[in-house]
Design goal:
Number of strands: 12
Distance between the termini: 27 Å
Oligomer: single chain
Strand order of the largest sheet: 6-11-10-9-8-12-7
CATH topology of the largest domain: Rossmann fold
Low-confidence stretches: 42-51, 286-340
CATH class of the largest domain: Alpha Beta
Length: 552
């Protein structure tokens, strides 16, 4: 996708929890310190002091799970850890999960279904045995805002498991801000009083967000200046509110959008368009602005109602004059309105996926009529070759290169599973691609298409007269004359006379070829192959099928 375009070795903004991308802001380090202090304090608490709960809260995507992973990595080997990540359980189910996490086996004497007492007795025996062996035990519950009130009360009772010297179980609750509101309820006051350390994890500041983006790009192999303009970075923080997960989603889509449009860096406008794709906001609109705008609209209804009576009366007074004035305007506007076309509806590539052929020959036959070739040939490439047209295939191309080629061709698409499929690309706009399937046009978003296209492209091309694959040094002929003539056209050099001596593919001409290749993003080897000839055709407005630029 966009990784090679920006000099990256891998996707830097994947939401997968890769420890190599761990970024610890000052707030993250402070939150981790609170957790470690809380656990150490709880282990040393004696008698009725200490409490037993450590609380970490934060909004969705702020990095609570990241903190938890760091916390687990720093817990000493002599500490048993039980981690509950799905707390939507009743009391018996929670106790069962805790015992399973601690690898506790219930006493064989228990008959029938285990009771709450059976689980607590087994847990208490395990904690006492661990304490005697100089070991401690920590219970971590993630997404703790989902705990029911009776389950929270049972957790409070578990902190009563103790010796004369210390508490036997330390409990860490990790959850969203609602968890703080829950513990503020009067019925949970006893539990709240046992919280010995609490910390709320805020989002990243603008400076931290920029550091976060730079950190992830650096891990992915990027060097040099960030591929984000300063205004784009400001916009990213505004739209994501500094939440790391939202930053990942937005930055990944923004880089994809910049790559699809051949841009060297991400601008603010690209960020806005990416936000519309990822968050569902309109370009340029911050999350929540739609609700705010709706509030303004509702507030304005009162004023509108107050003016409504006056407007109706005024309209009635001027009806005849308005009609006479409006009639010519409407008639004059009619031809323009009738001439305009509605924009093509944008479809999801997923809905088209079952129609895409796995056999590339089907795609070649779909492309053939554009080159006035038979559409029903059993071997489209062999038939084309008989008419001086060749099938050309390339890999590792980019969307900007396809824009420069400006000719319809076949994209090979690959999902995570299943066979490779083929789609005929016949049009490109800034944000969309037009595909042709069985004669019908379909418009899809470039950012969606880019998720399945890995750079494989195929198309027809017309061989210049006298062309030989891999033209030799010093070679001459009509193809070399054509090459030099088109380069002269691009360089503004006067055309050579018809009586001029034949040209040869010498060092000077190869140097000009390399300069053209470098300017068009082709490997500058000085050898005029099919890609170079097609790019020269495109740059000089040659006679070949062109891509549609308006998907209407």
């Amino acid at each position: 996708m966009y990784t090679s375009h920006f000099g990256l070795s891998q996707d830097p903004f994947s939401i997968a929890p890769d420890p190599r991308y761990l970024f610890m802001s000052e707030r993250h380090r402070e939150a981790l310190a609170h957790l470690l202090y809380g656990v150490a304090g709880g282990a040393q608490a004696t008698g009725g002091t200490g409490g037993g709960f450590v609380l970490l809260t934060g909004d969705i995507g702020t990095g609570k799970t990241t903190i938890c992973r760091c916390f687990l990595a720093q817990i000493p080997p002599n500490c048993h850890v039980a981690y509950i990540f799905n707390p939507k359980l009743n009391v018996p189910e929670l106790l069962q999960s805790i015992c399973e996490e601690f690898h506790i086996t219930l006493s064989p004497a228990a008959s029938g279904a285990p009771t709450v007492k059976d689980y607590i007795d087994a847990l208490n025996a395990f904690l006492l045995q661990s304490h005697a062996a100089g070991q401690s035990s920590v219970l971590i519950i993630d997404e703790a805002q989902n705990l029911a009130a009776d389950v929270l009360e049972q957790l409070r009772l578990l902190t009563n498991l103790e010796t004369n010297e210390r508490k036997l179980l330390q409990i860490v609750l990790i959850g969203q801000p609602e968890l703080r509101d829950m513990l503020a309820r009067p019925e949970l006051e006893q539990l709240a009083q046992r919280v010995i350390a609490r910390f709320h994890l805020d989002a990243l500041t603008p400076a931290e967000a920029t550091q976060y983006i730079g950190h992830r790009l650096g891990v992915a192999g990027h060097t040099g200046a960030l591929p984000f303009e300063p205004k784009a970075l400001q916009r990213i923080h505004h739209l994501t509110r500094g939440v790391p997960r939202r930053i990942n989603l937005l930055c990944g889509r923004a880089l994809l959008g910049a790559w699809a449009n051949g841009l060297p860096s991400v601008s603010r406008s690209v960020v806005d368009k990416a936000a519309a794709e990822v968050f569902g906001t309109e370009p340029g609109q911050a999350p929540g602005a739609r609700r705010q705008r709706m509030g303004y609209a509702l507030a304005g209804l009162a004023l509108l109602a107050a003016l409504l009576g006056f407007l109706i009366w005024s309209t009635q007074q001027d009806t005849q004059a308005t009609s006479r004035a409006a009639a010519p305007t409407a008639q004059a506007a009619l031809p323009k309105a009738a001439a305009s076309k509605p924009p093509a509806p944008i479809e999801s590539l997923q809905t088209l996926w079952p129609q895409l052929p796995a056999d590339i020959d089907s795609a070649w036959r779909e492309l053939a009529p554009d080159w006035k070739l038979p559409a029903n040939s059993a071997d489209p490439c062999q038939t084309a070759g008989a008419q001086g047209v060749q099938c050309y295939r390339a890999s590792k191309l980019t969307m900007p290169l396809l824009r420069q080629l400006d000719r319809p061709g076949i994209l090979t698409l690959q999902a995570a599973q299943g066979p490779a499929l083929h789609a005929l690309l016949v049009g490109l706009s800034d944000q969309t691609a037009t595909l042709r399937l069985n004669g019908s046009l379909h418009t899809v978003r470039l950012v969606e298409l880019a998720q399945f296209w890995r750079g494989d492209f195929a198309t027809f091309w017309q061989l210049p007269e006298g062309y030989n694959t891999g033209l030799q040094d010093g070679g001459s002929g009509p193809a070399i004359d054509w090459l030099a003539s088109r380069l002269n056209q691009l360089d503004g050099v006067p055309s050579r006379g018809t009586d001029a001596a034949p040209l040869a593919l010498d060092a000077d001409l190869r140097a000009r070829v390399r300069a053209f290749q470098r300017a068009r993003g082709i490997a500058p080897d000085g050898r005029p192959g099919p890609m170079t000839f097609m790019q020269i055709e495109s740059a000089t407005q040659g006679q070949f099928p062109h891509l549609l630029t308006d998907p209407r």
